[in-house]
Specification:
The protein has about 160 residues and is an alpha+beta fold. The protein has a single domain, classed as Haem-degrading domain (Beta-Lactamase), CATH 3.30.450. It contains six helices and five strands, in the order H-E-H-E-E-H-H-H-E-E-H. Strands 1-4-5-2-3 form a five-stranded mixed β-sheet. A hairpin with a 3-residue loop joins strand 2 and strand 3. Helix 1 runs antiparallel to helix 4. This is Heme-degrading domain-containing protein. InterPro entries: PduO/GlcC-like (IPR005624), PduO/GlcC-like_sf (IPR038084), YBR137W-like (IPR010371). It comes from Paenibacillus protaetiae.
């Protein structure tokens, strides 16, 4: 397994919650938005949901209807495979192919691009997703993962 894939799996192991409530979704979403403003000065969309329904959605200035497509297709990958959308896309590349060529899933519903990260509660497993779109897949992934890290490490 490549170093990148190992790093992405380690993130999923490290970035877990003891519990995840609606208020956590709100505060995590705001953390990600502030991080995007500080580091990228570009509009992003953030969508956080548990496995039942949306808990937080925000579209910054500069986003458009295309961001809704990317939210849907990235989070569907996490829900299908149980790993971050970046991990899934990179795992296909490590096999010498691409998600698009080999996943056997419709592009209209699934994209193996970075930006969606599983919400994992210790002892319960994956209970939802955090999805960011508006930058490159790697930058979207960074915002989702770093946002979770900062939220978990808050004072």
């Amino acid at each position: 397994m490549s170093e990148l894939l190992n790093t992405l799996l380690e993130q999923e192991e490290d970035l877990q919650f003891d519990a995840f409530l609606n208020e956590d979704a709100l505060q995590l979403g705001l953390t990600i938005i502030e991080l995007a403003k500080a580091e990228f000065q570009k509009g992003i969309a953030v969508h956080i949901e548990n496995d039942q329904h949306p808990l937080f959605t925000h579209y910054m200035a500069g986003t458009n209807e295309g961001n809704s497509y990317w939210i849907k297709t990235k989070k569907n990958v996490v829900n299908h495979f149980g790993h971050s959308s970046l991990y899934v896309g990179e795992s296909y590349k490590a096999k010498g192919t691409t998600f698009k060529e080999s996943a056997g899933l419709p592009e209209s519903d699934y994209q193996g691009e970075g930006g969606s990260f599983p919400i994992i509660v210790r002892g319960a497993g994956k209970i939802g997703t955090v999805t960011v779109t508006g930058l490159t897949g790697e930058e979207d992934h960074y915002l989702a993962a770093e946002g979770i890290r900062r939220y978990l490490n808050r004072a």
